[in-house]
């Protein structure tokens, strides 16, 4: 009988399918909800716009308009009412005041009260970043290119930089205006969201800044432009006037105009916008002067205009009638007043970014069929990380995270009269009556200095009687009758800017009626020997 030898069992070798497998990374990404996924393109814009945000959010606060708006906002908070006459200047008592940006002023004062000046810096940087984001989004959608969006943002910043340097309610109005520009350049203008969101935006906008009128102007141009487009194609005026989209655009414009009436002044807000722009005192403000090639911003605007015309000439894209009207008419407004660059720069940026990319694609094959990056949750994590890092680098972020507030000398511009205010606060008694203070410094002195100080004027020049403003200018320019104006207004204290008012400084120094009580690198405080 043979014996069968049993072979020892070989060790069991698992099939590959039995080995536990780690989940594939792509599966994890696929499980990320669609609404939270972002693209590499978004990370690029987050980085670049975020850098601009961080720079602006750390930029010292300008020494002019901001402080006047804070003063008016604080007055509204204290009195819980929007005054219908000028509430701060004694020489403007009783002057009718329609305070359009009252809500922005209250918001600025509330942020300052709660978070301090770093909160204002943060809000300033955020508004500029949001304007850039809206411009970039619209241009990328039109040009199908991230490069086009970057060009649009660069043009906007270069052309409008001077107008962005000062924190004022106008910045919030500029953001709303950019939204309207993006709407006008879009192809689907009348979604359900538009009919709800746009009127609500105008109801808010009309309580923040008078630039809501520019938004309505742009919407009307969009309607007129649609009429022109249909007329060119159909060659029939009847067909153009019966066009449904033309009717919807004009109806939406009227609805937004009606929503703007939801403000304390009601219908009076409309003539007030024109009254401010046409006020005689405004003519003496350099930022309202006509745009010329002698200024840096005039040169930037000219360069942008030439680039736009070149891009339009070479571009195979068609420019719609409304877009052309908006580009040309806002450009003419900017030539009339450099302050109007705010309303041309976003349009110029989108026009240049869109049409320049279309022109380049004709000769650059690899740009003709751009491949959009795949949205993933990983890029969302990258974007959130960038947001946190950028926030941590701002003065406000340092204050919130570490509890360290920078010294005021690092928060405000070097032109701010810090030394003057410190001197005034150190005085037990100050001369009574109206004081001569440069209009650019009056807001800061009223905000940070003793309440006993009463400036002659501030930068809300449209609320100052024309005679008072002209007398102030004659004083500041050291006309021969300067001393009679000092006596007429009962001025017992004069704070003089040594750089801007050297003539007045020398005249008062040479007078036996005044004593130099304080002087630093930028200012002199003179007090009359015998009070009037």
List strands and helices in order, with pairings.
Blueprint: H1 25-30, H2 40-57, H3 65-79, H4 102-115, H5 117-143, H6 146-164, H7 170-185, H8 192-205, H9 212-234, H10 237-241, H11 244-259, H12 269-277, H13 296-314, H14 321-336, H15 341-361, H16 377-392, H17 395-402, H18 408-411, H19 418-426, E1 434-436, H20 439-448, E2 454-455, H21 466-476, H22 482-488, E3 493-497, H23 502-510, E4 514-519, E5 523-528
Parallel strand pairs: 1-2, 1-3
Antiparallel strand pairs: 3-5, 4-5
Helix pairs in contact: 2-5, 2-16, 3-4, 3-20, 4-5, 5-6, 5-7, 5-15, 5-17, 6-13, 6-15, 7-9, 7-15, 8-11, 9-11, 9-14, 13-15, 14-15, 21-22
Secondary structure: number of strands: 5
Q: Low-confidence segments, ≥5 residues, pLDDT <50?
A: 1-17, 25-29
Class by alpha and beta content? mainly alpha
Could you describe the largest sheet, including whether it forms a barrel? Answer: 5 strands, mixed
Instruction: Note the quaternary state here.
Output: single chain
What is the share of helical residues?
Answer: 55-70%
Helix-strand sequence: HHHHHHHHHHHHHHHHHHHEHEHHEHEE
Can you list the strand order of the major beta sheet?
Answer: 2-1-3-5-4
Number of domains: 2
How far is the first residue's CA from the last residue's CA? 142 Å
Number of helices: 23
Strand content: under 5%
Overall pLDDT score = 91
What's the gyration radius in Å?
30 Å
Query: What does the overall shape look like?
Result: globular
